[in-house]
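Subject: Re: docking follow-up (zinc ion)

Dear J.,

Thanks for your patience while I sorted out the input files. As discussed at Tuesday's group meeting, I've set up the holo structure prediction with zinc ion included as the bound ligand rather than trying to dock it afterwards. The sequence and the ligand SMILES I used are pasted below, so you can double-check that they match what you have on your end before we go further.
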Amino acid sequence: MDIHVGLDDADSPHGGCTTYLGYLLASYLRRKNALFLDLPYLVRLNPNVPVKTRGNGAVSLHLRLDDSDLCDVAWELASVIEHEVETHGKTSPGLVVASGRAVGALSRVYERALSEYVPLAYVRELLEELARRGEVCLTSLRGRGLTGSAAAIGAFKLREFTYEVLVYGPRELGARLASSDEVFKEVDRRYRPYIFATYDYVEKRTLATPRSGAPVVLGLRGLSPRLLVEALSIIPGASRWILYKTNQATFAHLRTKKNISSLKPYDSALVEGRVKGSPRILKGGHIKVTLCDHTGCIDVMFYRETGYLRHAARLLRSGDLVEVGGGVVPRFGFTLNAESLRVISTSPEALELNPLCPVCGRRMKSAGRGKGFKCPGCGFKSLDLKKVRVEHARHLEPGLYLPSPRAYRHLTKPREVLGLSPEEEIPEEWIR
Ligand SMILES: [Zn+2]
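The structure tokens for the complex came back this morning:
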């Protein structure tokens, strides 16, 4: 039967070990010759909720096992985790084991958890109902991690995805890699854009090494499983690793278009509307833009850290039609923190100028209220000439604007991968 395993350690004070537990479980199941239906998943959820899994994400494994009992599998995996927790003093994650039949119901949790704040009670009730029907086995009902675990299962089968190869090792290896800029510049030179978000040339900083260090010492993100595994060969010390399929870099959380009046706190959403007034530059260099649709208006913040995105926002003018992707924060009413900006159309910027002299071609001057225009060059006067409207070319072109690398979040689609698709073929060796 098809079995799906979800893991999330949202309650861990340190975090960072969900993917490592996923690695341990996947290694264990590989040794037992389990058939994997797909690569293990690393699933990121709505980054704009206050109670979240610290960006560590949830993990799911997708298997086919011969005549297995769901709960036998669940307790077996729980004991593998328990052993790890006892040996290394980590926190037990939320563990959900589900049959193939439960995936449909859990996909709703995934969809919601991507862009909303999902109450734990809703997830717990759904899981209990599925457990009564024998489609889910739970080893514990405690913990916020249940939402991530359920959502990670519901992500199956991911339609839009990229890959990340995660390398594990001791803290010393993490520190060494974090200061090996040349290695990552080399990876970037060789493999960009098929391996992306590796190095930030503006900040002169490696993006592939997590700040927290162990057990994750490195994560390379890309569109090609083959090249990700190949790239590990030029990284010293990368000996224990796993290739995850992931919803990272797909903007999966910014798919739902919402009216301004229907936005709720912590939603991630796309909002289409017209710019009202000019952008205001706030202290610290942040930009505030008022956006209105037929249901209302909202302040949109483009923070300084978003770099390119903020630059584009500065060039917005009243009347421009745009679509902003971002997270809703309940601050001074609601504010939308922008993560993407699509300029649909710009409104012409026009100036009213005095007419040109029909005799000598110079720009005429006003001869006084109601007295028409007078030419400063040849003295020609006219009562009939009118002011002329001159349209300026706008510096902002229609198109999609994205943040600078330093503001990348897990789900941000980097500019270099726009229009590219991931390779489907999975290498024989995806874990070591
Ligand atoms: Zn003249």
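A couple of observations from a first look. Residues 357, 359-360, 362, 375, 377-378, 380 surround zinc ion (CB under 6 Å). The longest helix spans residues 70-88.

Let me know if you'd like me to rerun anything.

Best regards,
T.
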